[in-house]
């Protein structure tokens, strides 16, 4: 799993804010009004959790990174009675309380090392859902892994830091390795370098369906790229709507 120790500090600046609105709109389109208690897996710094709480959901944001959760907790105000952030592992959900909805966005499931780990997450989510609960998640498509990240390079710079992101094919089919390099300024204006490796992999839609059915999900819908349309050969992000 990625550490995010350095990434957490500048995460909000390098993320596209419009993506959070897209995830918010997609989530709300696929939920029933009675579904109010929500668990957001891999919540990061809590931007989407806050937006969901503002709409009336009772939200628990969970993330493996203590640094991310520390930043997320800074977003809580005195008015946010229905918002909570906890440090935790999505691979260990079975002992937690139950929810109407569980979400897992930003291709966070692609960080699972193998199919067994993905199955473990699905099993835990199923156990964490109330009857008739909904699980919504997204993953990178095979096209995105094989073509979209081919020779991908992204640079971002401010007065306080520089961020370099380069992606290369991974060791497995439909996998990628993201090499992140940070140059962060200290109080004296001196820049210090940090390096992180983020590894992601995805699978065919049929494999995700099989793992979800093995977890117990009965009705599974698949859409693409934030739209309510079926994926095609060049879809970049797959969305799964799963009903218990």
TrEMBL record:
Organism name: Candidatus Vagococcus giribetii
Zinc-finger as UniProt keyword: no
One GO molecular-function entry: methyltransferase activity
Lineage of the species this protein comes from: Bacteria, Bacillati, Bacillota, Bacilli, Lactobacillales
Domain Methyltransferase: 39-133
GO biological process, one term: methylation
Keywords assigned by UniProt, alphabetized: Methyltransferase, Transferase
Name by which UniProt lists this protein: Class I SAM-dependent methyltransferase
């Amino acid at each position: 799993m990625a550490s995010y120790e350095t990434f957490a500090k500048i995460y909000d600046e390098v993320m596209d804010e419009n993506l959070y609105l897209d995830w918010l709109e997609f989530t709300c389109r696929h939920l029933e009004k009675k579904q109010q208690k929500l668990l957001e897996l891999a919540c990061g710094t809590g931007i989407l959790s806050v937006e969901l709480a503002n709409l009336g959901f009772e939200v628990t944001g969970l993330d493996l990174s203590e640094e991310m959760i520390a930043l997320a907790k800074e977003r809580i105000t005195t008015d946010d009675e229905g918002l909570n952030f906890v440090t935790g592992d999505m691979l260990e959900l079975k002992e937690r309380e139950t929810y109407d909805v569980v979400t897992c966005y930003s291709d966070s499931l692609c960080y699972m090392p193998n199919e067994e780990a993905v199955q473990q997450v699905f099993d835990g989510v199923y156990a964490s859902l109330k009857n008739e609960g909904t699980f919504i998640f997204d993953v990178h498509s095979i096209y995105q892994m094989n073509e979209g990240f081919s020779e991908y390079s992204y640079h971002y710079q401010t007065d306080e830091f520089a961020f370099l992101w380069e992606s290369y094919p991974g060791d497995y089919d439909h996998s990628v390795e993201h090499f992140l390099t940070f140059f962060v300024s200290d109080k004296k204006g001196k820049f210090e370098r940090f390096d992180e490796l983020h590894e992601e992999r995805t699978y065919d839609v049929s494999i995700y369906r099989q793992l979800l059915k093995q977890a117990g999900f009965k009705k599974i819908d698949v859409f693409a790229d934030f739209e309510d349309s079926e994926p095609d050969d060049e879809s970049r992000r797959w969305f799964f709507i799963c009903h218990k």
